[in-house]
Write a structure and sequence with these properties.
single chain; about 280 residues; mainly alpha; 11 helices; about 75% helix; about 0% strand; globular
Length: about 280
């Protein structure tokens, strides 16, 4: 066990690439507001064009082609493994960098975006571009089981901005958000990977339930951060508060959309099943 821990720590925390990481605005790849704006607008434009093209085509009832299922399986497997690595890497990095428990919730003012914890924030940021492939796979699939929704596109577009602000503002509390989100994505991409190889698990509803619980948890830990921010003493303002404000509004909007999605897809389904039995 000690051997596993020491090797994980070396590769995920102490490796020079990880430990010496620095986010430099305008120098690190993707580290500019112009890059984020261009990427998000390109994603939205291409999604709109592809969506209009696929919806205007004749609906198909044929199964998803084998090559598309294989691409989907590989894509979901990559994101599954990446989510596990990010969750472990960020956890170990937080344990190695934190000065006390307060640091997990509230970075000191003017915290530089460098070191292992920000390396994993950067990897998480880059992973959001890889997740754009989710949209392409949904649009190319003839299956009616997965439809493109406003929630899907909204989440994929805005989460890039959120991750950029984590790094740009050295936002307090992002390590907790990263670990919880990567953990939820481990469950989600595990589910999608199994579906792509024809083994649909019974726990589809748990994916949405975990996402909703994630937002509830984030609001709970945010209360701790705000307490430190306003009552920490010694003028201890938490770093990146404006980035957190964007994050909080985004999470609140996602929670509303996920709750609505949950009620329409599961509560409505239970009601229809109950009506059939009566």
């Amino acid at each position: 066990m000690e051997w596993i821990h020491s090797n994980l720590r070396w590769w995920l925390v102490d490796h020079p690439v990880v430990s010496n990481f620095e986010w430099k605005e305008g120098q690190t790849w993707g580290a500019s507001s112009q890059f984020v704006a261009t990427t998000v607008l390109t994603y939205l434009s291409l999604t709109t064009v592809l969506h209009l093209k696929t919806t205007s085509a004749t609906p198909s009832t044929s199964p998803t082609p084998l090559f598309l299922r294989l691409i989907s399986a590989v894509h979901n497997l990559i994101l599954l493994l990446l989510s596990i690595i990010m969750a472990i890497g960020c956890t170990l990095s937080t344990a190695s960098q934190m000065k006390d428990i307060r640091w997990i919730f509230c970075f000191p003012p003017n915290t530089p975006p460098s070191g292992p914890i920000f390396f994993w924030a950067y990897i998480f940021y880059l992973s959001k571009f890889l997740e754009f492939i989710d949209t392409v796979l949904i649009l190319l699939s003839p299956s009616t089981n997965r439809r493109l929704t406003f929630l899907h596109v909204y989440h994929h577009a805005v989460v890039v901005v959120m991750c950029y602000l984590w790094l740009h503002t050295s936002q307090s509390l992002f390590p907790v958000a990263l670990v919880t989100n990567a953990s939820v994505h481990t469950v989600m991409y595990g589910y999608y990977m199994l579906c792509s190889i024809g083994r649909r698990p019974w726990w589809k509803r748990l994916v949405t339930d975990f996402q909703i619980l994630q937002f509830v948890f984030s609001f709970g830990v945010s209360m701790v951060m705000l307490w430190f921010h306003f009552n920490g003493g010694g003028g201890g303002v938490c770093c990146g508060i404006w980035g957190w404000c964007f994050n909080a509004v985004f999470n609140a909007s996602l929670m509303v959309l996920f709750v609505d999605f949950h009620s329409r897809n599961y509560a409505g389904r239970r009601k229809r099943e109950k009506d059939k039995k009566s």
